[in-house]
Specification:
Layout: H1 2-23, H2 37-44, E1 46-48, H3 49-52, E2 57-58, E3 82-84, H4 85-99, E4 103-109, H5 114-125, H6 133-136, E5 162-169, E6 174-175, E7 195-196, E8 201-202, H7 210-225, E9 228-231, E10 234-240
Parallel strand pairs: 2-4
Antiparallel strand pairs: 1-3, 4-5, 5-6, 5-10, 7-8, 9-10
Length: about 260
């Protein structure tokens, strides 16, 4: 019986990882875009999120050493967060709704330059560099990060309308418990972990509590209501459905626009 259970669990994990790979969209060729931030601001209308959403809390992990690599990531010149103006306006609507419920949004990442994605790829190929494994991927062998789509050569973040975020409870003064941390490499990060996100029905399990699943659904419901679409493998990751630059991967660094 024990052997049969282990086989069944392994099969479920395999299907879960496969779902992320099968749902990955083909990557279009990158469109060249200006590398200078002032040129991008004038031509493409990128904004600092906190200029549009002043209640947002920023914790830009890739400008710090607390991330899955353990060092500041290339292209993050300042600890700020940028989005296209249309995505930022939609995020403002999300923030206003959640504020009325007692929450602020906390942002980990938004626009991500291609240089940062390239940094991730280089790190992914250095199999001996496992400095932060115990914090972000203790159950996944680093040699499988590309295979499982945790590392890729392109990211929707580089198109300027994707944001990684969570909820901050104003009453407790703490982040809301979502059941897994940001950038956790594992099936615990999948929106389907613990239930069906489409109908918000909780499924009793050993991974997420009913409250943790419900917290994820609060964020998801608000984001979908205001024009964002979710990602199958990360509860924190949302992209504006009608993003203005679906085929453009920008190169300019993360710093305040003028």
């Amino acid at each position: 019986m024990k052997h049969t259970t282990l086989i069944a669990l392994a099969a479920l994990l395999s299907l879960s990882f496969a779902a992320c790979r099968q749902n990955s969209q083909p990557i279009p060729p990158a469109t060249e875009a200006p590398a200078d931030s002032s040129a991008v601001s004038a031509t493409y209308d990128f904004v600092c999120i906190t200029d549009i959403v002043p209640d947002a809390i920023l914790e830009i992990r890739y400008h710090s050493s607390y991330n899955f690599i353990g060092r500041r990531i290339d292209g993050y010149d300042e600890p700020t967060a940028l989005l296209t103006r249309v995505a930022a306006d939609s995020l403002k609507a999300v923030s206003d709704e959640l504020l009325a419920m007692g929450y602020r949004i906390k942002i980990y990442d938004a626009y991500r330059p291609q240089a940062a994605v390239d940094h991730f790829v280089r790190w992914g190929k250095e199999l001996n560099d496992t400095l932060m494994r115990q914090y972000f991927y203790p159950n996944v062998d680093k040699s499988r990060l590309f295979e499982l789509d945790y590392i890729a050569t392109r990211s929707s973040h580089s198109r300027g309308s994707t944001v990684d975020l969570t909820l901050f409870d104003m009453a407790s003064g703490k982040e809301v418990d979502m059941g897994s941390p940001f950038d956790w490499f594992g099936t615990e990060s999948h929106p389907t972990c613990g239930g069906n996100p489409d109908n918000q029905q909780y499924r009793p399990n050993d991974t997420l509590s009913r409250e943790q699943f419900a917290n994820r659904m609060i964020l998801r419901k608000a984001m979908l209501k205001h024009g964002f679409k979710p990602y199958e493998c990360e509860w924190w990751h949302f992209t504006l459905a009608n993003e203005p630059f679906p085929d453009t991967y920008f190169q300019f660094p993360v710093k305040r626009t003028e």
